[in-house]
Structures are given as structure tokens and as C-alpha cells.
Amino acid sequence: MDAAGPDSGAAEMSREGASSIEALSRRLQSRFAGLLSHCAIAFGEITLELPVQHFVRVCWALKDEPEFAFKQLVDLCGVDYLSYGRSDWETSETASSTGFSRAVETEDYAAHAQQQARFAVVYHLLSHTHNQRLRLRVYSDNDPPKLPSVVEIWNVANWYEREAFDLYGILFEEHPDLRRLLTDYGFIGHPFRKDFPLIGRVEMRYDPEKQRVVYEPVSIEPRTLVPRVIRPERQQPPQAAPEESGDA
């Protein structure tokens, strides 16, 4: 049995994994010099940010070149950065780091929105050959947001891109069949933008005089609902029972 114990073996594997990630990061920056917006390592993972004009070219290289061989697209998802790092309703730090917010375009977010594009698409890639993972992030400056489709590169992206289109309204150019995937055919808007009214615009009821269902404007007062948060600092410790006097 190894005298160093199992902990030393785990530490050695961790160091080997870190060195492998750093080596991959260097190869990526060397191969795609001038084509990347940013390359970062965080939490043991590499994230590449790409400009739209170079995105498809880099994706083909990541898949086809033996040095990388990222043959599998594991996931693709949209991200809305409109209120990223900001909050409408502040809460205790123990409850949430950013509070609660809705992705509604208000004047407060105007300056923040000018700093970067609101929508991005994130791609997670896997190389079975080298047992490595990679994350790509691409921002869209268009309105509505628009990015090239990668269905021709990774066929599995077909439904992933339809999902991002349905929930975020992100368009994918040259997608073979860009239709809604999760919402109803007549649905208006995109749910994950969270810009819909909290209480709706109309309400319905049965009118006994007209003997039919009628639609009317919403009659309740709009209000903001904040989830209940139990804060440990507000919980009082139980009071000790008073000691009885020894005098009878």
C-alpha cells in the first residue's frame, strides 16, 4: 500500500488535471490568436468568448482538428444579461447574493445595457478523444438577437437552438426548421425574457345575464411579491426558565 495514502493520489490527479487545462488553454490561444475575444480559466473550466464573425470558423476547427476533436455538443443555452449583477429587491446576504429581479427594460438598466449585448448563447463541448471539456460564449448585438446556426457542425444543436429561440427569442441563421419547441403555437413573446406582466391584462368570468364567458380588464391592484425569507439572525434563542429562590 502506498505510504502516502489516498489523499496524495487525489492531489496528484488534481494537479495533473489543472496542468492539462492550462495546456489546452495555451493551445487554444495560440491556434486562434486574433480570433478570440477572451479566454479564461475558472473553477477548473475554460471559457472562450468569440466574436460572431469568427464563431463558425472556430467551431469547425474545434471539431475537425485532431488536436482538439470536440466532436460532441453537450448543451446549448441562451443567457439574458440585462439585469446581470443588479437587483430590484435587495435581500439579506444569507438569502441571496443578488436579490430578486425581473428582466424588464427600465431606465435603471439603460447604462448597464450599453456596456455589453443583452443576449448571449453558451455552448458546452466535449472531446472524448482527449477527455476534455470546453465552454464557448457568443454575444449577439442584433435586435432581435441573431447568431449563426451550428446544426451543420453538430446536428444535435437542432432542438437546442429551437429551445433558445422559443424561450429567449434568439434567431439562428440557416437553421433548417426554426419553430417553437415548448410553448403553444399561438403563444406571444418569449418566457425566459420575463418581460410579461405579473398579473396579466384581462380576466374572465361567467356572466349569468349574458349566459356566456366575458373578458374584462384586470380588477386587482398590481403588487410586487417578494418570496418569504427566513433569516437566522432574527430567530431569538429560547429563554431560560428563571431560577427558583431557595427561601421558602
Describe this structure in words.
This protein is an alpha/beta fold and 248 residues long. The chain folds into 2 domains: 10-81 and 116-189, NADH:ubiquinone oxidoreductase Nqo5 subunit (Beta Polymerase, domain 2); 87-115, no CATH class. The chain is 23% helix and 23% strand. It has 4 helices and 9 strands. A 5-stranded mixed beta sheet has the order 1-2-5-4-3. A two-stranded parallel sheet has the order 6-7. The model has no long low-confidence stretch (mean pLDDT 81).
Major sheet: arrangement of strands:
1-2-5-4-3
Q: Per CATH, what is the topology of the largest domain?
A: Beta Polymerase, domain 2
Order of helices and strands: HEEHEHEEEHEEE
Give me the count of strands.
9
Helix fraction by DSSP (H/I, runs of at least 4): 10-25%
State the CATH class of the largest domain. Alpha Beta
Number of helices: 4
Determine the mean pLDDT: 81
Question: CATH superfamily of the largest domain, please?
Answer: NADH:ubiquinone oxidoreductase Nqo5 subunit
Q: What is the level-2 CATH architecture name of the largest domain?
A: 2-Layer Sandwich
Overall SS class: alpha/beta
- The low-confidence runs, each spanning 5 or more residues with pLDDT under 50, are none
Provide the domain count. Answer: 2
First-to-last CA distance: 71 Å
What is the rounded Rg? Answer: 26 Å
Please tell me what the overall shape is: flat
Major β-sheet, in short?
A: 5 strands, mixed
